[in-house]
Amino acid sequence: MSDKYVPQEIEKKWQKYWLDTNAFETKEDSNKEKYYVLEMFPYPSGNLHMGHVRNYSIGDVVARFKKMQGFNVLHPIGYDAFGMPAENAAIKNGVAPAQWTYSNIENMTRQQRELGLSYDWNREVVTCREDYYKHTQKLFEIFYNKGLVYKKEAKVNWCDTCHTVLANEQVEDGKCWRCKNSVIKKNLAQWFLKITDYADRLLEDLNHMPGWPERVKSMQKNWIGKSTGVEFAFDVEGMEEKISVYTTRVDTVFGVTYIVLAPEHPIVSALIANNPNKEELNVFIDKVKNQSDIERTAEGVEKLGMFTGSYATNPMNGERVPIWIANYVLYEYGTGAVMAMPEGDQRDWEFAKKYNLPIKLTIQNQEKNLALDDMDAAYVEDGYLVDSEEFTGQSSAEARVSIINKMEKMGIGKEKVNYRLRDWLISRQRYWGCPIPIINCPTCGSVLVPEKDLPVRLPEDVEFVSGAVSPLQTSESFLQCKCPKCGGAALRETDTMDTFVDSSWYFLRYCDAHNEKQPFDKEKVNYWMSVDQYIGGIEHAILHLLYSRFFVKVLYDEGLVNCIEPFTNLLCQGMVLKDGGKMSKSVGNVVSPEEIVAKYGADTARLFILFAAPPERDLNWSDQGVEGSYRFLKRVWAIVEKYLDMDNYQENTLCSDQIKLRRRLHKTIAKVTEDLDGKFNFNTAISSIMELVNEMYSYAESHSSIAEGFKKEIVRSLLILLAPFVPHITEELWQKLGAEESSVHDAEWVVVDSSALTVDEVELAIQVNGRVRTVMSVPIAMEKEEIEYKAKTLSAIQKFIEGKTIVKVIVVPKKIVNIVVK
Ligand code: ANZ
Ligand code: ZN
User: Where is this motif: 'KMSKS' region (predicted)?
Assistant: First the structure.
């Protein structure tokens, strides 16, 4: 029955079978422990790349392994299907975004199926489908009614040629990524979600998430950016109004030599009103306003500023300090004004050097005396205070407390906590997104679309013209409506939602993907959530993961879910590289998964990817590596056939070589189980299976028969161990084996027989005529004849029996061998 291993044939066959039989369909089952494993759903760009293949292969091993361990496994997939590329394709090629998207989804689904992934396809979620976005709108309304949605004028990146708002990522060097014209800042009324209300909980709960990589947690902490400092006011000469500053280093207040405002600060126009350089100042202000925050604050970027002509008074020592404006102070953070203390702050230091502003030393280093003349950078650490009136001599930490106390007594300042996190701007002036369910009425203002009128559908009578207004504004049927409150003529909101809104709750929808009435049923979500294992790229470390955490917390507060965090364990996979660089279209070093699958089969592609590197590390693509994986699978195929063809003998006594092979088998079972259980040591798991296969070959080379029971055990176990990694070949060989379970994927995971692991050897004392001459170690199960033969050939024994006649040999099992000679 020696067939050749032809992956293309068997893979097609099993994929069809799994699909036709809904092999991986899951239902809630309160008698079984659940396990929810999830890979980040893809954007339907049209084709899978190797990064996807890696992501899904990792998830698939976990899902199949957990299923074999007896868990009720939920392993779904879907598509993050709204977004700009579909709309750009519409502008460029005239295809409707829906058509473009659905045909891409179709292609990617086919590619995913060709990888043999164990998805429950019945739970597929597609965010651009009405049956999904209607619930995204419902969730928007829940947020709205909780007071977590508001509309505010915001400064946005605006391209006047393309006539649209651009995301920060779409601005390259201050230019529009598409038409290359300069991007301007424009004030537009935009919709926001109040994520800042949750800043503290989003931060605090990170301390109770042992299943997340430290790196991701610290990125989120920095993004939220909580800092505790002081807010206090400077008097302005000749003005009633004061300037409030925010500082985390109030201990440096005696070293302040100037103050700096963001050019957007509302007091600026009054400060420069009488300045003869007013015109120049205004040019400067406009220029800074058009710089992005990233440009303004990046390290090494030139700090630019101008003197306003006005002065302020330091309330702690009455000193007169000039008021400047500069690009490095952001209007959106703190109070938009800082007290500058060049000795202690590197930005202030550089600025003071550049514009010849005075520098005072008021923080001294404990260890090594600082002198301004010797310094070429700020001293940013804590120290002790000098030249600071009654606070002189205090440590920075002491001074921060005592100075706040004094300020509070004087009534000029107070402790203040600040966050870097901003509210989430979700408005997009785009067509291919979830419509914001709001109606703008000239009398009533913004009114929520009543729940019974959801979904607000995307119209099809729109025009996609580059440089035009948002396409939704070209659809009269969409635009014109009645106000739900007063019944008067009103206009529908034409902004759509940021696609990150869609992806902030898709993992909940998988739990109840066909619910028409609500986004999800609470009971079902509570059965499945939280996601036990989430797997995806590090590029989502902040936005997607933070937004999803925010959504779950809001829904928890609403009593709609029981969990406070969406993802218990997070794995961030490394990149796929080729020749040391990232695999990417622009570099031209892309290896297409489809070609690899066509040539070698999905099992080889999966095995290579899982074997080549631990999942968190970057993986270097190697054609030899792929060949090697293919060869290994051919070896697996051949050895299984060989074993199945071997002669059986019925009784279950194993010869010492079978005992040894069985020990290797159970060592491998122990190793693979340990490597997969809560870990992702796929590469070492696979290499131990490779060793097992080698030993199976060694046995087959020197034996033509095998105990029937053991034959079945070893082939069966090998296939079970390999099944999560290479599901097709193992299924095909499983059928040849004819095991009780109809599919290897329904088999239970193998358990270690610890008795097989113990090294079953005993020491025998070897006597000649009743005197112990040496000891010999033999396997417990060694036959008497074999023991006798071995004992006689030992050199330590030979010298006592040489030239003599052996009368008899007495073997006392596990104890002694006595050779009687004459
Ligand atoms: C004086 C000072 C002296 C400062 C010193 C630092 C060191 P975090 O920790 O990130 O909150 N700052 C305040 N508001 C700002 C704004 N809108 N734009 C740019 N910088 C701003 O940083 C707080 C510190 O950043 C504040 O403390 C302030 O500079 C600056 F030796 O005040 B500090
Ligand atoms: Zn109205």
Answer: 582-586
